[in-house]
Sequence to fold (299 residues):
Amino acid sequence: MQGKRGLIMGVANDHSIAWGIAKACADQGAELAFTYQGDAFGRRVTPLAESVGSKLVLPADVADEASLDAVFGELEKEWGQLDFLVHAIAYSDKNELKGRYLDTTRKNFHQTMDISCFSFVDIARRAAPMMRAGGSMVTLTYAGAERVMPNYNVMGVAKAALEASVRYMAVDLGRDGIRVNAISAGPMRTLAGSAISDAKTVLNWNLTHAPLKQPIELEDVGGAGLYLLSDLSRSVTGEVHHVDAGYNVVGMPQARDLDKDLVGKGYAKVAKARNGGRSNGANADNDASGTSAATDAAE
Fold:
């Protein structure tokens, strides 16, 4: 990454995924610029930026066109060229991440989509002209874009739109030598992750049921980001790169990873209810017709 210059947007603190990616790139010689929103985040981001030798730390509000124009005007003046972009920005009213997705308000739906999805498109449109020699853009997504996850609701819908945007922008920008990809990290102890109710349960579930049976560390995602931003991935674009210990490939956890007593009692309770209070007399383990009946009852 020697001689490369990149913009990092979305660092909140030293536990942020964006910081893990930034640190990995800086360790390989990249020159970085950072943005922040509000004075509180500015006080956190500035010392981190200084620790990797960055002199460009700029305020940015992704919902404000003038603010983004100012950021890229400053980058054009100071650098003139950009090699890579990291977009790690998302927002939703955390009160609407609980309960039913159906109860999402129009206001929060629009705001969530604007900040969590459209901001990447808006920023990429400004960054692309500065990538005169080609470049790479990376954003962050999550499993909730692909499957229903607890307490994620409209954010999952926004992340699904973000992943679709990655594919469309990969086609739009490919002829200019600009690659666009996303990283889908597993549950981690970040500021964004802590906003999700029952985050500890989600962390433990992933740890138990992912094939590798290991937590996702900041360095893991940082390394993936470095790969996607560097020439090592020069033929990779339009992809969602999972860094989740393999959880994305699991359809149903292995029996040995489940609480068998809980699962058994849960099945028996549902089957009895579906049969009008009568227990299912068929042996689902040994009788083919019993298996069929058990399946019907469980559905």
